[in-house]
Task: inverse folding
């Protein structure tokens, strides 16, 4: 029998009524002849609540216990979903990560898949079970402890199962009916895309569009998984939602295909560090060791360069990172200064910044996108603090209060609300 993977996010399983609603969707696919692997998230809000409980219990950050607690949200949904399906006469069994087993690395709270052996689930299918309900977001380390995959990780569980079981498709059911040109909650002009390339989706996800976890898109691209995003609240069929697929399958041609944003960023500037070989390594080494995900980096000549007080060459170094890592970043820099490996006059933190990015494979062959983006932001009086580019994206850091305005302005500027012409 062909296998189908169906993943349901937190809002889609937020209460018993919604669990019953999506169980109907699963049952329909069983009737169509699929063996179904269902991946479930925790009920919406549950993971945040569990993280809050861990933080309120202890200041000691023990990632093993964090994972033990936080993974439990998915276990509840998996059991309830299997029960509901049984009620409907569909033979279903729930699976926690260790029971499959979903083998991961031991990088607690950010674990990666090592292997997903098929034997146990296949043995159950062979007995006549038609649905395996797997708890998303979790796995088991080589030491036999529970691990989790990072926020939004159930998407990645789904794609990994689709690859491991060579599923016909991986359907990600969520609270929007597909991937849009930007978050539809920010502008009503956002338009649903029928198809998007793996590469563009990867950029959008990594730049803040949380509709899919970045790692899930990476895996789908690597293993050629047919990945689809669709609504768990609408009636859906074969043509619903957005397909994430190879570039060659896409007929639309727009230079920019989407806009992503990440609200909670912070910017750190080290004022007047020595300008010498090895200084970047001395700064970013300790930041990496402290688990700080440095994003944008700018090095520029300091105003104080060549003055009498600082006869040697000096530079200012600016970097950005997620706002919740700012204390770790500050501490790492203070320690590096205290042990003499770097020296700086001042450490300035700007915690009120956000990042907005335009993404499109068309940028490979078109020039002028950056100029157009900067002009549009300037016309609205939005100051750009840091810029970074890659082959298919341009990102800028701006004051957080302008984020909605910036997304809406760029969405209009690149005419994303209107359908593209076919090539
Ligand atoms: P789930 O709980 O199902 O995993 P998420 O909340 O993680 O759902 O992701 C879905 C949300 O992603 C949507 O509600 C939407 O606000 C947001 N989102 C951000 N960018 C986009 C985009 N480009 N297209 C669609 N949704 C987006
Ligand atoms: N429940 C986890 C989270 O909220 C994983 C997921 O839903 O994908 O991050
Ligand atoms: Mg999600």
Result:
């Amino acid at each position: 029998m062909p296998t189908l993977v169906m993943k349901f996010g937190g809002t889609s399983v937020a209460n018993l009524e919604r669990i019953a609603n999506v169980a109907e969707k699963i049952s329909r696919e069983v009737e169509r002849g699929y063996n179904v692997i269902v991946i479930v998230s925790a009920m919406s809000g549950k993971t945040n609540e569990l993280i809050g409980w861990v933080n309120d219990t202890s200041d000691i950050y023990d990632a093993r216990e964090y994972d033990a607690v936080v993974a439990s949200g998915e276990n509840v949904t998996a059991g309830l979903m299997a029960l509901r399906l049984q009620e409907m006469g569909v033979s279903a069994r729930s699976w926690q990560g260790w029971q499959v087993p979903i083998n991961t690395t031991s990088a607690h709270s950010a674990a990666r898949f090592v292997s997903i052996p098929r034997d146990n689930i296949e043995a159950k299918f062979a007995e006549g079970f038609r649905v395996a309900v797997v708890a998303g977001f979790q796995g088991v380390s080589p030491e036999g402890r529970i691990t989790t995959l990072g926020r939004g990780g159930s998407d990645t569980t789904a794609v990994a199962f689709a690859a491991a079981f060579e599923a016909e498709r991986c359907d990600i059911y969520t609270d929007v009916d597909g991937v849009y040109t930007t978050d539809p909650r920010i502008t009503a002009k956002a338009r649903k895309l029928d198809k998007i390339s793996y590469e563009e989706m990867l950029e959008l996800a990594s730049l803040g569009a949380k509709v899919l976890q970045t790692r899930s898109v990476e895996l789908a691209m690597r293993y050629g998984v047919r990945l689809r995003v669709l609504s768990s609240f609408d009636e859906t069929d074969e043509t619903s939602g957005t397909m994430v697929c190879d570039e060659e399958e896409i007929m639309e041609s727009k230079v920019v295909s989407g806009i992503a944003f990440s609200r909670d960023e912070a910017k750190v500037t080290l004022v007047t560090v020595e300008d010498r070989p090895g200084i970047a390594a001395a700064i970013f080494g300790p930041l990496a060791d402290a688990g700080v995900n440095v994003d944008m980096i700018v090095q520029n000549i300091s105003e104080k360069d060549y003055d009498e007080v600082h006869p040697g060459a000096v530079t200012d170094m600016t970097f950005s990172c997620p706002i919740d890592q700012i204390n770790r970043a500050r501490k790492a820099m203070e320690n590096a200064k205290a042990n003499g490996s770097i020296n700086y006059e001042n450490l300035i933190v700007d915690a009120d910044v956000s990042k907005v990015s335009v993404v499109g494979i068309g940028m490979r062959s078109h020039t002028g996108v950056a100029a157009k983006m900067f002009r549009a932001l300037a016309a609205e009086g939005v100051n750009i603090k840091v810029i970074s580019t890659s082959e298919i994206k341009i990102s800028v850091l701006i004051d957080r209060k302008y984020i909605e305005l910036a997304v809406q302005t760029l969405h209009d500027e690149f005419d994303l609300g209107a359908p593209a012409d076919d090539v």
Notes: The pocket of magnesium ion (ligand 3) is lined by residues 9, 152, 155, 210 (CB under 6 Å). Residues 121 and 200 are 33 Å apart (CA to CA).
